[in-house]
Specification:
Shape: globular
Largest sheet: 8 strands, mixed
Number of domains: 3
Radius of gyration: 29 Å
CATH architecture of the largest domain: 3-Layer(aba) Sandwich
Number of strands: 27
CATH topology of the largest domain: Rossmann fold
Strand order of the largest sheet: 2-5-1-14-17-18-22-23
Helix content: 10-25%
Structural class: alpha+beta
Length: about 550
């Protein structure tokens, strides 16, 4: 560290710690999807960074085997289509919660030592990464081959091994791990932690040590996994039940959530049970950063008119809070699981991807609706609403998806379920989530600092550094910064009683933007001094 006196020509390095780090909020929405999958950890929020990552961890478009009324059955899940469309529309990181109604059995295999004993000792147990019959070797699932590479020099004389994860009767190699030993001696890797490593370990299996880590190496052989049992068929309430929302609440990031339906073997489409209780379960105990995207029913599930059905669904969610929005109808997309075919799917996956795309390119303060809100994978809407239908649904805060000539299939509504106030718009609610998250992240440094005017000034500067860029990006209303926001953190609210209680209080006010939801154009014709006027409403 220099004392500030520079005499010799050259380069001087000075290191200074930044006492008040300035970060931005989470610019990109994190999509969270719950539904049934062929495999994967149950009722646990698992991150997937890409479509190929989802396929490896949850099985992609593979059939979903379940038991239904005691009989084996196959489901068609809309979750893989939602995830695929999420990435196709601009989504990035996502989390998946696999829904199963009861605890099912995962396939296992026991690996025994190779010490010549009459009764071999178990070295470890191989567990499939997820329940169900998908991993049973007899059903074309998994086998694990262990081979001995070499023996390390004395005094350890440990067996160095190779482990391969195989699939199917032909033994297709999925993964290979080399340079393994039971204890990790002489530069080798201990086999159990190496296979279970969350980053570089196996995506298909995990090992559970069943004996002392100093046990002899397992016998070189191929071990077939067996005993996997498929889960039961989840109900509509299972798809968004307490176990599911509890798993989502473990994700430490602002979320845009959807619950995906599935189609039973008899053609019945089971929808999640939408209600305000799900919204309350996610945004509870101090958490207020989860935004829910609800799908309307498919046309096959409607007995009356579509508008009446979607209005009834929206009514079940309620209009008290602004943390959810309803989108309808379903959309027709190319079927990535069957080349040349199309499939009708819920719009939520595409909507979540579109929201993430607009977040990344503009910001959460841009309403995710209008011509920029095109659903790039959709080729048509399942139901074609008239202008009158759209007007009635929009008045009840239901976001309609329609074909727009020259643009494609677009979301033409940007309202939450709340019927009044600026946060009745999706962009306003998500702007508040963005600001609140940024304030929470950037004020962590202040915990246990001395509670005086210097701390208050630093907190005001931190808040202003967050809000100023939002206003400059047109995220807040007001011709000047003073009209757009204010920050108060001083002695007027931090009284001696407040300070003595160990608290510091800061008040932040923001002027939220209203979207131009209706464009009214007045066209006038002048003829011999007579004015004839018409109004054109572009919405």
């Amino acid at each position: 560290m220099s004392d500030g006196t520079y005499r010799r020509p050259g380069v001087y390095l000075e290191e200074r710690l930044q006492q008040q780090p300035t970060q931005s909020g989470s610019a990109t929405a994190v999509g969270v999807f719950a539904g049934v999958t062929p495999k994967g950890p149950p009722l646990e929020a698992t991150a997937v960074a890409s479509w190929s990552d989802f396929v490896a961890k949850f099985g992609g478009f593979d059939q979903v085997n379940v038991t239904d009324g005691g009989n084996d059955s196959v489901l068609v899940s809309y979750l893989p289509y939602a995830v695929f469309n999420y990435y196709q529309n601009g989504g990035r990181l996502a989390y998946i919660v696999r829904v199963i109604p009861t605890t099912a059995q995962g396939a296992v295999a026991t690996v025994q030592t190779d010490d010549g004993a009459t009764t071999p000792v178990d070295s470890f147990v191989i567990n499939a990464n997820g329940v169900g019959t998908w991993a049973n070797a007899a059903d074309g699932g998994l086998s694990v081959a262990i081979a001995h590479q070499a023996t390390s020099p004395a005094p350890e004389s440990a067996t160095i091994m190779t482990l391969q994860v195989l699939q199917g009767a032909d033994g297709r190699v999925l993964e290979t791990f080399t340079n393994l030993s039971m204890t990790g001696v002489q530069g080798t890797r201990a086999i159990v932690p190496a296979i279970n490593d969350p980053v570089s370990g196996s995506r298909y299996i995990e090992l559970v040590a069943a004996a002392s880590p100093t046990a002899p190496a397992p016998a070189a052989a191929v071990y077939d996994l067996a005993g996997g049992v498929d889960p039961g068929t989840p109900t509509g309430s299972d798809l968004c039940g307490q176990d599911v929302t509890d798993a989502m609440r473990q994700i430490d990031s602002p979320l845009v959530v959807s619950f995906q339906p599935y189609r039973k073997q008899d053609g019945t489409i089971v929808m999640p049970q939408a209600s305000s209780g799900v919204e309350a379960a996610l945004n509870s105990n101090g958490r207020t950063d989860c935004f829910l995207v609800w799908d309307g029913n498919p046309e096959a599930n409607i007995t009356g008119t579509y508008t009446a059905d979607i209005e009834a669904l929206a009514a079940s969610i309620g209009t008290a809070d602004s943390y959810s929005a309803v989108y309808a109808p379903w959309v027709v997309t190319p079927d990535p699981a069957h080349a040349g075919a199309t499939i009708t799917v819920p719009p939520s996956g595409s909507v979540q991807g579109m929201i993430a795309r607009i977040d990344a390119t503009v910001g959460p303060w841009r309403t995710p609706a209008g011509l920029p809100a095109v659903l790039s994978t959709a080729v048509k809407a399942e139901v074609k609403f008239t202008d009158t239908d759209q007007g009635e649904l929009n008045a009840k805060n239901i976001n309609v998806i329609r074909a727009v000539p020259g643009s494609g299939i677009c979301v033409m509504g940007g309202r939450t379920r709340k019927l009044y106030g600026p946060d009745r718009y999706v962009a306003a609610r998500r702007t508040l989530i963005y600001i609140e998250e940024a304030l929470k992240l950037n004020t962590q440094w202040a915990v246990f600092e001395n509670n005086d005017s210097r701390l208050w000034s630093s907190l005001r500067n931190t808040a202003q550094n967050i809000l100023q860029p939002v206003w400059e990006a047109n995220g807040l209303a007001g011709a000047t910064a003073a009209e757009a926001y204010y920050v108060r953190c001083d002695a007027t609210i931090n009284t001696p009683q407040v300070v003595q209680s160990g608290e510091v209080r800061m008040e932040v006010g923001v002027a939220l933007q209203y979207p131009a939801e209706f464009i009214v154009i007045r066209v006038s014709q002048f003829d011999s001094g007579v004015s004839l006027a018409n109004e054109i409403v572009a919405a």
